[in-house]
Amino acid sequence: MDKPLEINLHKILRDRLPEKTSRFLPGFMISALERIIHQDELNEMLRVTFPARGSAFARKILEHLGIEVEVKGMENLKEGQRYMFASNHPLGGLDGIALIAVLGEKYGDDGIRFMVNDMLMNVEPLRDVFLPINKFGSQGREAAKAINAALESDMQVLQFPAGLVSRLHEDGSISDLTWQKAFVSKAIETGREIVPIRFEGLNSSRFYKAARWRKKLNIKVNIEQVLLPGEVCRARGSRYRIIIGKPVSVRELKAQGLPPLALAAKLRRDVYNLK
Question: Best label site of 25, 207, 232, 268, fewest CB within 10 Å?
Answer without folding.
Answer: 25
